[in-house]
Amino acid sequence: xxxxxxxxxxxxxxxxxxxxxxxxxxxxxxxxxxxxxxxxxxxxxxxxxxxxxxxxxxxxxxxxxxxxxxxxxxxxxxxxxxxxxxxxxxxxxxxxxxxxxxxxxxxxxxxxxxxxxxxxxxxxxxxxxxxxxxxxxxxxxxxxxxxxxxxxxxxxxxxxxxxxxxxxxxxxxxxxxxxxxxxxxxxxxxxxxxxxxxxxxxxxxxxxxxxxxxxxxxxxxxxxxxxxxxxxxxxxxxxxxxxxxxxxxxxxxxxxxxxxxxxxxxxxxxxxxxxxxxxxxxxxxxxxxxxxxxxxxxxxxxxxxxxxx
Length: 309
Prior knowledge:
The protein is mostly helical. Helix content is 77%, strand content 1%. A hairpin with a 2-residue loop joins strand 1 and strand 2.
């Protein structure tokens, strides 16, 4: 879901909930405002929360991004590691490695699919019918999964969730396990060429793991930068509203009713919702980042989720 849409829905939920509470509970909000310092209590606390929370989020984001800042030697090592991986991948593809993340993942999936076809063809020459059946089912499953991922990657742009979502849908860990299982179970009946085909397919599948993790890391950093910016943008009007409510709004500031509801109730509910926007924005980002991080805790053939079994 679009994070801004989710933030808007959460804000609407807060606004309606605050409105319902003020209308159904006794004493009513207007009478509370007249007899107590309700507005001062709420919005003086919100000013402290906004300033503290915004500072904390920005600090955490900067800590996560601090690895981007370092001496020349560290940057040279990062570049060297990236180029080593690129060289290894170029040897895998026997062609130039795409610079676009979605095309890179797509080409990696294509290479996996190509090697699976080679394996299927070579195993077809084996005399073991059970081996042929299992490999055929495995390759058919891989083709179906690869086609789905390739369709999702088509036209996907980095910075959106589409690229990472597509990468998450390629269950390379389960495929590596199946390759290892079949290689071990039918070791006695495999020829050298067939064993080599299994190894080549496993190599291509194993490359998908670090590639996906690298793109996931870049996506998280991208998202944290955006989150820091958006929270700063949202914090300024939230502080203005909180300060305005604290300084200028009292029991007699807004009189009358609107839609049979006291105007002061609308104002306080709306102002409270606006001051919560930075937190709701933070919530909408965490609701995506946390499940992705949980789903990708393990790298390689370790299956943590029941649905993948």
